[in-house]
Design a protein that fits this description.
This protein is 71% helix and 0% strand. It is an all-alpha fold and 258 residues long. Helix 1 (7-27) packs antiparallel against helix 2 (30-50).
Length: 258
């Protein structure tokens, strides 16, 4: 990942990248758009690191959403608009981005009510400076609610940014991160994550469905064993074996044994 050494260079780079995004978007040249997305995301990383609050930053994420939309990556397009609205709000950009926002919301299978709720919750009120960490947490929250497998690495990266800013990490995000690391699918993650959960409460304690809880245990044990964290794997294995296991689950436990 590229880190820029000065704010001035980051601003210059963003201006240049913004002009290029505008050019290729206007031309509808999918090949040039796709070839530029890596550079565009590096410019996006610079803006997040420097927290550059101005019109150029806001317009940049709008144009990046346009690029992803033209290449058919509607989840990343919506994520880019959420980045703009949460982290770099601007009334002028919001006014012109509204049609694209709702088009992308529908392409991500969001209902009218959910799309309207997200739009309203990210609408700029007044001209006060934003609390960047607080807005970054909101971005993670909203992005997880529309998460796809393609989007997960981006959410994870922005969680790392949040940590680098010395923010207090919400329990629900820590649980999402853990469930993502062990390879749990999106549908089950959404069933498990509770936004009011106790930060000191392990994720297993909030899974009411015993079948799903055992599945998470198995995935977690395999994850820790693959990563040579045998003490943690042994701890979870002991918890798993103490559950009321069926015959097939006991066989599975045998093969998970340390």
């Amino acid at each position: 990942m590229l880190f820029f050494s000065s704010l001035g260079f980051a601003q210059f780079s963003t201006k240049t990248e913004l002009r290029y995004l505008q050019l290729v978007n206007k031309q509808h040249n999918k090949e040039l758009i796709s070839g530029n997305l890596f550079n565009a995301e590096m410019a996006a990383d610079s803006l997040i690191i420097k927290q550059v609050q101005n019109y150029i930053s806001s317009q940049f994420f709008y144009e990046l959403a346009e690029s992803y939309s033209q290449t058919g990556e509607y989840d990343l397009a919506l994520f880019s608009l959420l980045r703009q609205r949460c982290l770099f709000p601007n009334a002028a950009v919001s006014n012109k981005s509204e049609p694209l926002f709702f088009e992308l919301a529908y392409k991500n299978n969001l209902t009218d009510s959910t799309a309207a709720l997200i739009w309203n919750s990210t609408t700029l009120h007044g001209s006060k400076a934003i609390n960047f960490n607080k807005q970054l947490i909101k971005l993670l929250d909203l992005s997880i609610s529309v998460s796809t497998n393609n989007l997960a690495p981006y959410i994870y990266k922005y969680g790392l940014y949040l940590r680098s800013f010395n923010a207090i990490i919400p329990a629900w995000y820590q649980h999402w991160e853990f469930l993502t690391n062990i390879g749990l699918d999106i549908i089950n993650k959404q069933k498990i994550i509770k936004y009011s959960s106790d930060p000191d409460s392990p994720v297993f304690s909030q899974i009411e469905d015993s079948k799903l809880r055992k599945k998470v245990y198995r995935k977690a044990i395999r994850y820790y064993k693959r990563n040579d964290s045998n003490n943690q794997a042994a701890k979870l294995y002991a918890e798993y074996k103490s559950s009321d296991l069926s015959f097939l689950e006991r066989i599975s436990a045998f093969f998970l044994g340390l």
